[in-house]
Amino acid sequence: MRNTGKFNGRKILVVGLARSGIACANLLFDLGAEVSVTDDKDDPAIRDNAKKLKSGRVKLELGKHTKEFVKGNDLLIISPGVTNNAPCVVWAQELNIPVISEIEFAWMLCPGEIIAVTGSNGKTTVTTLIGRILEKAGKRVFVCGNIGNPFSGEVEKIREGDFVSLEVSSFQLERIKDFKPKVAVMLNFTPNHLDRHLDMQEYLDAKKRIFMNQDASDFLIINSEDPVLVKVAKETSSKVVIFKRSESLNPNQAAVLAVGEILGVEKDLAKEVLLEFKGLEHRMELVSEIRGVKFINDSKATTVESAIWAFKDINTRVIFIAGGRHKEVDYRPIRPLVKEKAREVILIGEASPIIKEALSGCTVISEVGSLDEAVKRASLSASPGDTVLFSPMCSSFDMFTNYEERGKAFKKAVSKLKGI
To answer: How many Cβ atoms are within 10 Å of 384's Cβ, its own excluded?
Structure first.
């Protein structure tokens, strides 16, 4: 690692005790920092996370945030879920304490070359595939970030000459300062996270930060079919590379090939990886086929556009399960596909009444109290040859910790059907 002495002896507060917070706190402890951690939740899951901290000397504040706990620190490092108007961030600003994101912290230590991937949809798939083509080409690569493995949890293993395929969200980019990827990938830009960002412009401004520190030696890869990104690319100082879909390549695959070309990966080798790729858990994952009905877990689909992609990928009648925490987006763009393909829409979670109103008149719409109930109803409504599609269009936080937990709950509910 580089800059390892930068944190020795400094008082640093980590805000958030999920995966990135744990990794960040443990690494800071190894670097000789005086570490504190605060989380406004205090439940069995958070207490289990607290047990994963390396040292009993880490100061903990659970179930609340207090200004006294923020005072006296030299730096705040925040998890992606912490907003700019969160009390800890506001207090830090009042006290002139710098605030950075976990990816900024890890970047300061990272000696490897970073390929950072952002976009409203497709980030996880593209980040994974970039890792796989580099691995196939004999490179040492780490796949991390918003994809599940925190960057700060991997950075100790990364050496000069290694590569990092890093998924980054708008939340993480909001609090970068000097973060500078060698290759920045912007896949697309569509309405998302408007429960967090004030409006689409603020959301776009956060995304644009991915290239704000790049120079002429770096690369920005953008989607030729996205007019917003084509316009944004004029603001960068880096080399702009445009990718486009074709008959044989979807946009995600085209983006991966563009990255591979920049990094010297043979095109045929990269295409071989794309052909071998069977998809990711929780992203258009075939869970089971029961009595002629397919059950698809698309829990990663937290946007309307992701669900539209899923509908277009299915050639049968659909029983559509959706819902969760509303992200202040418009669900009406999926109406034509629901009207054309959906035998029934089954809604769960906080967003149910909003989605019901947006899709009214398209097909039969039901609201149920749990994902288990939704799966049972879907199995009763479906006929042989149909597909039950769980593609929520919403975040998971009303009922689940994250989309992975939600997807596993769907799979568990489907497995129970086999005994019926």
So the answer is: 9
What single-letter amino acid sits at 93? Answer: Q
For residue 286, which of 312, 308, 307, 314 has the smallest C-alpha distance?
314
First to last CA, the chain: 55
Q: Where are the domains of the chain?
A: 9-97, 104-276, 285-417
157 torsion bin: left (phi>0), alpha (psi -120 to 50), beta (else): alpha
Tokens 């794309």 — which residue? 274
Distance, CA of 237 to CA of 240 (rounded, Å): 9
Residue 395 DSSP one-character state: B
The superfamily (CATH) of domain 104-276 is Mur-like, catalytic domain (3.40.1190.10)
378 CB contacts (<8 Å, ≥6 apart)? 319, 321, 344, 346, 388
Q: How far apart are CA 379 and CA 291, in angstroms?
A: 10
| Interatomic CA distance for residues 186 and 152, integer angstroms | 22
Residues 6+ apart with CB under 8 A from 408: none
Q: What is the pLDDT of residues 351-410, one digit of tens each?
A: 999 999 999 999 999 999 999 999 999 999 999 999 999 999 999 988 998 899 999 999
SS (H, E, C) 233-287: HHHCCCEEEEECCCCCCCHHHHHHHHHHHHCCCCHHHHHHHHHHCCCECCECEEE
Q: Which of 115, 105, 238 is nearest to 176 (CA)?
A: 105
How would you class 55 by CB atoms within 10 Å of its CB: exposed for 0-12, middle for 13-18, buried for 19 or more?
A: exposed
Q: What is the CATH number that goes with domain 9-97?
A: 3.40.50.720
Task: Give the pTM.
Answer: 0.80
